[in-house]
Amino acid sequence: MIRKHFAGFAASALALAISAQAFAGTVTTDGTDIVIKTKGGLEVATTDKAFGFKVGGRLQADYSRFDGFYTGNGNSADAAYFRRAFLEIGGIAFTDWAYQINYDFSHNSGSSDDGYFDEASISYTGFNPVVLKFGRFDPEFGLEKATSSKWVTALERNAFYDIIDWTNGHQNGMGAQASYTYSNWAYVSAGAFSKDINDADGDSVKQFNARAVVAPMAEPGNVLHFGANFAQRSLDDVTAADVRYRSRLGMRGVETTGGNDAAPNGNRAIFAGTNSATQFWDDDSAWGLEAAWATGPFSLQGEWMKRETDSAGAQADLEATGYYVQAAYTLTGEARDYKLGKFDKIKPANKQIGAWEVYYRYDNISADNSVAVTATNYIREADDTEAKVHNLGVNWYANEAVKVSGMYTKAQTDKITNRNGDDDGDGFVMRLQYVF
């Protein structure tokens, strides 16, 4: 029922956006004058900025091909899918209230039971510079996650984010968050969340997140950024808690929705942990440090992260660490936009050739492990596991709406292979993105 009504609303909003661009005429209101913008979706706001809304969205169509460790038998496989297909509606009401609804038609966010919402939130800004946010949204953890998927440099965020996916994903729950911005150089946030995982009594998993950022330099092309993150959730009395330390190693097509993937031959290996109903756990914690520097068209950034899961049974505690380092350069000279706490888009200076960006990122995962596993698509030794991932890519920002990307990925593993014995794999991903 929710999807049916939302689909009708989405169709009406889209029709309104198209008609607004097709016809011109006189607009009258019963109060303050309004301004209508149709560049990049449909935006309507009163001149006093007390009311307004914007209808937009993003479409990311991916094609990938991969082999070796990325598949169970080592043979080549491919995937063609919508990575994201969002309709986004956001706005302001009565000056101090803001809302945002992002619905994912590719079904990579949410679920059939809870609705495929990437976000559905309400914020109160009347205590500026303090902002209070409520509803369904991703908790804050990490620099790459803070950067929108529309403008993140690589096609997929670093490989360790998969290991700590619960830290920055809403898992269909609800949350409340308070954030504070000091001038243009410091930002802190803290939030509490109720996740869609229950214990035997129906009590949901509770999670706490905190992020702090200091940016002595915070202008496009002149950035110096430092940050720290913490997240913790309690898994007390949760049967079959999912504590799998697993990663796609940068190749989403091994297992995804939104179209065709490599399943059942895609290898999304588990480096440690389990979701067995016979094992019980206590606190699950994650820490992270982040840093970035940018000068002109060049940017350098990295994050270090750690996850620990305390055992409440006979099994051993779990632990993993990871990091990435990324360097990017815009060949056409544009600087990457930066807003306090996150990077943003690249705006092409030349409308004919657009903006061209090249980048390299190195990811590393190390997980403590003492349990041997022979699974459908991988074999894990009773020893600590490791993965190294090299990513080399190019982005073409044809204009402010269209982005075309390509990325080559090379993964190498230790103490874990696919069923064919491969401990390395190669993959290539292409994406066509349209943002409105």
Describe it for me?
The protein has helices spanning 2-22, 143-146, 160-163; strands spanning 34-37, 42-46, 52-66, 77-93, 97-104, 117-127, 130-136, 174-182, 186-198, 204-219, 222-234, 245-246, 259-260, 270-272, 281-295, 298-311, 318-330, 338-339, 342-343, 355-367, 373-374, 378-380, 385-397, 402-414, 416-418, 424-435. The strands form four sheets. A 16-stranded antiparallel β-barrel has the order 3-4-5-6-7-8-9-10-11-15-16-17-20-23-24-26. The protein has a three-stranded antiparallel sheet with strand order 21-22-25, with no helix packed on it. By secondary structure, the chain is mainly β. 7% of the residues lie in helices and 53% in strands.
Care to give the gist of this entry?
By secondary structure, this protein is mostly beta strands.
